Amino acid sequence: MSNGSSKASLHFTAGLTTGVLSASLLQPADLLKTRVQQSPSSTLLSTLRSISSGPNALRQLWRGTLPSIIRTGLGSALYFSSLNALRRSALFTPLQQQGANFGSRVRYSNTTNLLSGAVARTAAGLVLMPVTVLKVRYESSLYAYTSLPRAFLSIIRTEGPRAFFAGFGATAARDAPYAGLYVLFYEQARSRLGVIANTTTGDDSGQRVGAGQSASVNFSAGVLAAGMATTVTNPFDAVKTRLQLRPREYGNMAQAAARMVREERARSLFDGLGLRVLRKGLSSAIAWSLYEELVRMGEGRWIWKGREKELVD
What we know:
By secondary structure, the protein is mainly α. The protein is about 75% helix and about 0% strand. α8 (about 170-200) runs antiparallel to α9.
């Protein structure tokens, strides 16, 4: 395997690992967000009461974990590998590294981070859109699906294949700016937190500090970036949920947004914001900090093997 394909597989595997882990741990927050966004009368308290009063309450919080793992695991793998490929392609010129280096050998411009993040996330979202629709339907209390195969067959039979792409416009309108802004905010926050970390340790040389401190910087930057990007893009997420759950009622993205504002006021566009910030903040922080560390360790092994080969030769 060539060095280029080895690095590509590293980014794919690291993304897959982080996606599966974050989806498994944070599924309850995702399920609660879907339930809160599904109708105007849904609130977090009423949703929790409804789940706790039913059978297998704890198990119900993890309903939809399998499609969530598939979507988030493969989505993260495709996203991180595509993001790395885009940023290293001839389309973008890297900037020279400045300041503290936390897990990334090259810095890119704000425009590069914004565009590459948006393109990578939108492409991954399109590929996994059918799984996303299954996941949202399975999490919602509006459908009584007993298994994923039955859910799939029911959608095909009653709504046709087109239903698996319901809400893609709103999803793209959410994911493209979210991912672009996230990468932009993340790189900026990581750079500034890295400088602060070096200042606190008395190291102003711009060299990397320990792996533990590097991980804490990546995690903190992930939380900050996710909080900001999530708040900006939540209206698209709220519209997307309505379209995926009740496509016939809400039509398209513009019609859904107009109806929600008209019938429920503008605050409905921010339903589930707290849960989404919590989930996105933790999942993005886990994903990016673990991804950075896995890539750092993988690249470190390649460098070591390269040095050994040079010594043998």
